[in-house]
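Quick one, probably user error.
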């Protein structure tokens, strides 16, 4: 099973946050508890809207960077939000 995950969260204010983790469910729970990234702390609750799994950390980190460089519109198309 792939241990390295790139994920996209939709925050309570409608913004999108992209991150990397090795424990997806745990990390989403941390974000919702206010123990996640500084960006998401004031924007809870968050909802997982997209994720991709990778076999290597380097591949996942590269993909995280690619997604973070995308425009809002491109991210919406990726996660299929309306």
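Nope, works fine. Designed sequence:
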């Amino acid at each position: 099973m792939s241990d390295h995950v790139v994920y996209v969260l939709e925050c309570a204010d409608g913004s999108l946050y992209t991150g990397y983790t090795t424990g997806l469910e745990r990390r989403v729970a941390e974000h919702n508890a206010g123990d996640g990234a500084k960006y998401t702390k004031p924007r809870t609750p968050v909802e997982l809207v997209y994720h991709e799994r990778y076999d290597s950390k380097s591949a996942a980190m590269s993909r995280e960077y690619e997604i973070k460089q995308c425009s809002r519109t491109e991210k919406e198309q990726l996660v299929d939000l309306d």
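The mean pLDDT is 94.
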